[in-house]
Every structure is written in structure tokens, then in C-alpha cells.
Amino acid sequence: MNRRIINRRLDKAFKILGIASTVFGLLVLVVLFVNVFLEGRSRLTWDFFSSFPSRKPELAGILSALVGTIWLMVITGLVAIPLGIGAGIYLEEYAKKNRLTNFIEINIANLAGVPSIIYGLLGLGIFVRYLKLDRSILAGGFTLALLVLPVIILSTREALRAIPFSIREASYALGATKWQTVRYQLLPASLGNIMTGIILAMSRAVGETAPLITIGALTYIAFLPQNPITFLEKFPFIHFTLRGLLDPFTALPIQIFNWVSRPQKGFSTNAAAGIIVLLGLTLAMNAVAIILRHRYQKKIRW
User: Fold this and answer.
1) CATH homologous superfamily of 46-298
2) Are the C-beta atoms of residues 221 and 214 closer than 8 Å to each other?
3) Nearest to 157 by CA among 110, 108, 121, 122
4) Model confidence over 14-71: pLDDT tens digits?
5) How many helices (H) does the chain have, and how many strands (E)?
6) For labelling alongside 156, which of 52, 108, 195, 209 has CA 20 to 30 A away?
7) pTM
8) Helix, strand or coil for residue 45?
9) What is the pLDDT of residues 51-64, one digit of tens each?
10) How far is CA 26 from CA 29, 33, 226, in A?
11) Nearest alpha carbon to residue 251 among 213, 289, 286, 199
12) What is the signed CA dihedral for 148, 153, 158, 159, rounded to 10 degrees?
């Protein structure tokens, strides 16, 4: 009887400790966010969004960094999302269980926890030097795609693994092929959890600084990359080239890091405003992904 009372008290104590830890973490986050918002809100003007970086803090803006960040996220998503989902489907549904696949699975799990600067060194060796993409937006996007690829693969596998095997058996019993089962049954049912993994992966990519600094992203850029899309008057109406994607770039995390390292008080205010913009961009990306996830989940009928 005494043992049961002790266990109950221990359970209650751990529950209280867990709640207190959660509340403390949330309070620290709220304090940091309020402090950043109060310091940087005065700089959130149209001039701040439409101006290039400057040596004078009152004239500095985030236009080039914001455009560079958007291009990086577009390239990262276009590369990492289809490759990650495809690799996850193959490993979970098609690959035979042997030593080779076990070795691949272990390494993918390990890569998800590798420090981001290691991916920066990998991108520097492969994309910048070997493929001669130099310090371009394309090299930065490919490097960030490598960074988030293991996370998307693991989330895709876990999402497929959570689907009851009876769904697969029912599909096969009705004469569906392997691909038809994956395409029309497994992917729609698991898309919500896959989108959760993509949200986490892209949120990590948008705030990374170390890989971009490693591959040589610039801290001061007073121009915008050329638009790689040209609209034509005749068919096919759109012409796409790599121009612009091979231009040097900067990003919001690098710009914020540059401003924080400067001694002037005005640059500290600019950095706070840049943090607010970066948080807003991250929340906007997450909101779009969450809306898409809920729309697909509503269509699922077991």
C-alpha cells in the first residue's frame, strides 16, 4: 500500500514538473518575442522592406535578403519535397528488407541529427567547387535541400507506417496494383503527417545561417537577382533560364547576423525588425502548409 502511494506521489510530482517546465519555456519565448517586437517595430516601414543594405542603419533595408530567402525556399522545396517523399515511399513500400536497406535507414536517421555546418561543407565541396555553381542561389538552395532531406524522408516513412495494413490488403483484394495502392490509398491517408514533417523541415531551413555562410553567401548585396522567368507573346508564353539563379545572394538570417555583429544601436534595431520579418515568413509558410494539410485530411474517408 505504501508503495502505491509513493508511486502516485512520484507520478504527480513528475506531472507538475513537466507542466512547470513547459510553462517556463513558453514564458521565456514570450518574453524574447515581446522584447524583439518592442525594439524592432519602429523599423517596420515600407522603406525598410524596399531598401537595400546600407552602412547607415537608418537607411538600411532587407529587400535583397528577403528576395534571396524566398528564392532559397522555393528551390529547397522544389528539390527536397519530391525527393524526400519519393525516397520515403520507396524505402517503406518497395525496398526489400536486407542489410543494404538497414544500412541506408540507419544512415538517414543519423543524417537527420548532423550539425548544419557539415552540410555547408558538403555543399561547398559539391555544388560550389565541383559543379562550379559558385556562390549562387542555386548552390544555396541545393545545400539546404540536403539539410532537410533526411527529415522529410523520415516523416514520410513514419506517416506511411502509421496506416493500418488492412488498408493495403483491402486495396490488393480489389485488384489494385502496388502503385495504385500507394497513389490512391496510402498517400492521401498519410499526407497530413507528411505535411507536418515538411513544415518542420522548411521551418528549419528558413532560419539556417551556418550552411549559407560556409558556401560563401554574401552579407552585403545592393542588387536583386535577375528574374529567371520571361513572359512571351507566343507559345509556350513562358521561357525559363538559369540566369538569376546563378547570381550571388544573401538571406535574412545572414543579414540579421551581420547587423547584430555591428556596434551601432541602429543596427541592433534593424536586426530586431529583421527577426520579426523572419518569424512572420516562417509563420506564413507554416500556415499555408497547415491549411493544405487540413484540406487533404477532410477528404479522407476510411
Assistant:
1) MetI-like (1.10.3720.10)
2) no
3) 108
4) 888 889 999 998 999 889 888 888 888 888 888 888 888 888 888 888 888 888 888 8
5) 12, 2
6) 209
7) 0.84
8) coil
9) 888 888 888 888 88
10) 5, 10, 42
11) 213
12) 90
How far, CA to CA in Å, does 29 sit from each of 19, 23, 286? 15, 10, 18
Model confidence pLDDT, tens digit, residues 208-219 = 888 888 887 777
SS3 50: helix
Distance CA 196, CA 151 (A): 11
Cβ-count burial of 174 within 10 angstroms (0-12 exposed, 13-18 middle, 19+ buried)?
exposed
Host H or E run for residue 57? none
Confidence of residue 172 (pLDDT cuts 50, 70, 90): confident
Q: Which residue, among 243, 215, 219, has the nearest Cα to 145 in the 3D structure? A: 215
- Measured in degrees and rounded to the nearest 5, phi and psi for residue 229 equal -105, 125
Provide the residue type at 55 as one letter.
R
